[in-house]
Design goal:
about 400 residues, Rhopdopsin 7-helix transmembrane proteins, Alpha-Beta Plaits, 2 domains, 7 strands, about 65% helix
Amino acid sequence: MFSLHTIFVVTTVSQATTALVLALLAFVDRRSHGLRPLAVACGLHTVAIFVMPMWREANRWIPEAISAAFLPLIFFLIHEGLQSLVQERKRPSGDRYPSAPAVMLLLAVMLLVVLLAPWSQLWSMQIARCAGVVLMARTVWMLWESKRGNTRIPALVTAALLACIFCTMLVRIPLEPGIPASPFLLLLRKLTIIEVTLLAFSFLTVYQAESKRRLDEETRQDALTGLPNRRAIEERAAAEMRLSERTGRPLALLMMDLDGFKKLNDTWGHAFGDQALRVIGDALVRRSSEGNFVGRLSGEEFAMLLPDHTVADACRVAEVLRAAIAKLVLVEGDQRVKLTVSIGIAIRFARETTWTEMLRRADVALYRAKLGGRNRVIVCEKADYDGNVEFQRSGIEAGGHWG
């Protein structure tokens, strides 16, 4: 069986390597803020198990106090790093760092541990372990509550490792004062070191899963507006079509086009046109209800999927959106530019299994709204629509309702 010294050496090398890899990844991937606290945590653990023991020969209680104070700090950094990687929603920029009360409480515990060390190194370490246990329990619960698909399994594996460390430390806390040199306690120490080493490796697995999730998200996101792009819209539409076919619930589609977009670009420049698209996208997101799905199809065209919406429901939503956007004004120099959108509406027919026909009908309705003077809502309900968009467009007359 491996000696405690051998396990220490292997763990030190592993922790130092993991800390270096995490630090390099944090330097390369600046968007992944969770890597930084995890790299620092691994680095501190390396110092605690390798540098501090060598310092003890010169001075006994100072390195013990620092090692004990490192323990709650390490688990605090682990919690913050993992939360940043696996949390369901990204934190706002102002909430990127931990709350002030949490930091103050951590500093108070660390100060207590350091001040208690000259009188009782054992109880100083016990307090540090208790703080670590509390932080581990909180981290395990946070990982268990994680809902992200890509990071779900790595998060659960990391939670299981933290739970093992949690249980091991719970057993060690009452045993340390009474029988510090017992074979069972030495076994627990070895087990703790192995568990912590595996935990460090799990950080890399969580980061890999989170990187894949971000890459998948970016391939489905429009770079200009931040909305889902056409690929994401098509994937969501396919899922909604299957659900509508299976359950019989209605499904509506709004297709929206920014009026006079070419004139905006020609008159005030493409930067102004890009700003108009971002403003429209923000307005659509703010006024979309839960369950609705809005994205940018291409150019100045946007789409919104409305599950459980009949024609009448879709018309009400479209009119609210149209009226809200008509109130938007962009300022360019001394000019005030009003924005409007034309909206075409289509619903899913019972025979349809793909959204292509519904999209074409919405496109025809949108085209008719453009011909009718723009800044209006038109519905295409024609059940015997043959899918020939150009043919249908050529027969449209301005004004009225087509259905």
